[in-house]
Structures are given as structure tokens and as C-alpha cells.
Design a protein that fits this description.
heterodimer; A: mainly alpha; Four Helix Bundle (Hemerythrin (Met), subunit A); 8 helices; extended; B: about 180 residues; alpha/beta; Rossmann fold; two-stranded antiparallel ribbon; 6 helices; 8 strands; globular
């Protein structure tokens, strides 16, 4: 049965599910064919981002300050649920946007730290030295980012950190096949890949 | 070619990181958007969603108080708020398959893995605006149709009664816009 009302969703009922077509009139008003000579919207946005790019170094330094504060809390209080969450959220932020800011090397280190914190079943078993090394590596990459050899140096550093972290995670999760599968899988960027 | 008039759309950006919000806001303004509201966590985001009635929600996943997944589940409550059909774009650093699946099953419309770029964000917005999907309501799910493609290799039971698996097509808005022009 189809019920049609102005601005109301159209509902088609089946045996155990409904298909609902929402009112999209507001969205519809925003769509039109492009006209010749119109500026490329993606290029306009990239230009807008470049205009604020002088701030990016300060933002990365802010993140290093947050990482250091979270690390100090871990040193003082140990890896509790709260200190772990604060450190994870900060590392996750760095992982998420440092590449957009022009610091892809920092992203890879932060990603390794996130894996360590997310997939270690027993927090107390995480060696704090590995946590320190990750935080120090991110801050060193930000501090030394103008070095010509930063890509090569950070790749070596990141590779070693990732190797140590993954070896630790494989041992700690040896009885958790579902987690091992996640650790071995490639990242997904779009669910069309599912 | 399609063109989205971003100045006709109202956006809500929810992310606990102020710098990330600024990046997204800068990109949206660059695309031409004027109305971009911001919230720093899921709770404030839900309040802003009710208050501003945005056309599109862009949310982070990992946030304090309640996260982007919980926020999505709260928005996708039929009859519980002003617009449970609002397009939700999840922008996240979580890229594991189980996470992507969880986001889809919570009712997220589009998934955008960080690091974000202007092009990737633009494509997601174009997709939700120009190709809106119908919603499916079952006993256990309410959200955009999760069947984006037919899989001829699929073997297994048909989970929807009333016939074989099908992709429910909706007329792209661009075609409608051309017809109205």
C-alpha cells in the first residue's frame, strides 16, 4: 500500500519491512546542472584551506602538547580506563588530521599508538616505554619537520615502532582470532569495498 | 556536469577537535556554504541537530560523552525527532572493516575516512544530495538502504521477504533538476 502526502515520506510496506522515500525537496533545490565558466568548487575549497595553512604548525604543536599531557597522566596514574581514553582520543585526532595538515609522517606514528591502545586486551601489560617512544616520535617529527631528510628518517622510525607494536599485539592477542584478523587486515576507506 | 548550490544547504559539523572542525568548516565555506553550525561533542550535537534542523550532518566517530555512532542511532529514531532521514556523513579515523560495517548498520549515509581532502568531502556531499537513497525500516534497522549493489555471486537466504534481493533505485535529483529547468 502506498501512502502519499505532500512533504510526507512515501511508504511502501512489504511483509517484514517498509521502503520509505523521504521528502528531499530541500536537497533538490540545491542541485542543478553546472554552467560553463563556473569556478571549480573543489579548487575553491583547496584554496581556502591553503589560506589558513600557516596555522597548521601551531595546531600540530598544540596536539603535541596534548599528547605530552596525556602521556604524563599515564606516567602519574598508570594506564587506567580514563588515562587510556584521553591518550587514545588525542592520538586518534593526530592520526585523523595530521596528514591533511601536511604531516603524514605523524599520522603513521599516531596510528600505531592507536592500535596499541585499542587492541591490547590488558592495559597493564602495555610497556610504557613504547607509549613514550610513540609520543616522542610524533613530537620529534613536528619539531624537525623542515629537515630535508624528514621523510626518510621518520619512515625508519615509524617502521621500527610499528614492528615492535605489532609483535607485541600479536602475542597479546594470540587467543583472539577476530582481533588478529583485524590487525592483519587492510584499512577500509569506503563501504563500497565491503 | 552537476553543480551543488552549497549556499542553499545547512550543515552541522560535530567533532570534539576544534582544529578539525575548522578544517571542515573552511572546506564547506570554500564549496560555497554559508550556514555551517558546529558542536564539540555528541550531546551538544544532538541539541544543535534539534535546534538548527540541518540538511546534512557531518560527524566524527570518537568523541567524549557520546560518540558519533550513538548520535546516529539517536537521530535515526522514526517519529522521535524532526528529521530522522537527515543525511549523516561519518568522518572518522576508524578504517577497520568491522567499524565501517557498524557505521553502516547504525544508519550512517556516507563514510569518509580521514585524512580528508576537499575532493573526497565534496564527493560525499554530492552523493547524499544528488543521489538520496530510500530508507528501509525493519524490526532491527532504520536507515538508508544498505543494498547499494546487486551481488550476482551472493549465496544464502533472502533476508527480505516478498521477493528476491533488489537494489531500490531512486531517480537522481540531477535528472529531476534537468526536467524542471
Amino acid at each position: 500500500m502506498i501512502e502519499i502526502k505532500p512533504n510526507e515520506p512515501q511508504v511502501v510496506s512489504h511483509a517484514d519491512y517498509d521502503v520509505i522515500t523521504p521528502d528531499v525537496s530541500r536537497l533538490r533545490k540545491a542541485v542543478r546542472p553546472a554552467e560553463p565558466g563556473e569556478a571549480d568548487q573543489v579548487e575553491l575549497a583547496e584554496t581556502a584551506l591553503r589560506r589558513i595553512s600557516n596555522d597548521f604548525i601551531h595546531w600540530m604543536r598544540d596536539e603535541c602538547g596534548r599528547l605530552d599531557a596525556a602521556r604524563r597522566a599515564v606516567q602519574d596514574q598508570g594506564l587506567t580506563a580514563d588515562t587510556r581514553q584521553a591518550l587514545f582520543l588525542t592520538a586518534h585526532d593526530v592520526k585523523g588530521y595530521s596528514e591533511t595538515l601536511g604531516y603524514p609522517e605523524a599520522r603513521r606514528v599516531a596510528e600505531s599508538l592507536c592500535r596499541l591502545l585499542e587492541y591490547t586486551p590488558e592495559l597493564s601489560r602495555i610497556p610504557l616505554l613504547i607509549v613514550d617512544q610513540h609520543v616522542d616520535a610524533v613530537c620529534a617529527i613536528v619539531r624537525e619537520h623542515k629537515r630535508e631528510d624528514i621523510t626518510a628518517v621518520s619512515a625508519e622510525l615509524t617502521g621500527r615502532l610499528r614492528q615492535v607494536t605489532d609483535e607485541f599485539l600479536m602475542i597479546e592477542n594470540r587467543d583472539r582470532p577476530d582481533i588478529l584478523a583485524i590487525l592483519r587486515s587492510a584499512p577500509r576507506t569506503d563501504w563500497d569495498l565491503l | 556536469m552537476i553543480r551543488i548550490d552549497f549556499n542553499r544547504l545547512r550543515f552541522l559539523v560535530i567533532d570534539d577537535n576544534a582544529h578539525m572542525r575548522r578544517i571542515i568548516r573552511t572546506l564547506l565555506h570554500g564549496f560555497g556554504a554559508r550556514e555551517v553550525h558546529e558542536a564539540e561533542d555528541g550531546a551538544v550535537g544532538l541539541d544543535a541537530f534539534t535546534h538548527y534542523t540541518p540538511d546534512i550532518v557531518l560527524t566524527d566517530w570518537a568523541m567524549p560523552i557520546f560518540d558519533g555512532l550513538e548520535l546516529t542511532q539517536m537521530i535515526r529514531q522514526p517519529n522521535a525527532n524532526a528529521n530522522p532521514f537527515v543525511p549523516i556523513i561519518m568522518i572518522t579515523g576508524h578504517t577497520e572493516k568491522d567499524r565501517v560495517t557498524a557505521a553502516r548498520d547504525a544508519g550512517v549515509t556516507e563514510f569518509l575516512a580521514k585524512p580528508i581532502s576537499a575532493k573526497a568531502l565534496y564527493q560525499r556531499v554530492v552523493n547524499v544530495v544528488a543521489n538520496p537513497r530510500p530508507f528501509i525500516k525493519t524490526k532491527t534497522y532504520f536507515g538508508p538502504d544498505r543494498r547499494r549493489n546487486t551481488n550476482s555471486n551472493y549465496v544464502g537466504p533472502e533476508r527480505r521477504k516478498d521477493g528476491p534481493a533488489e537494489v531500490i533505485r531512486q531517480q537522481p535529483l540531477l535528472e529531476k533538476a534537468r526536467r524542471l529547468a
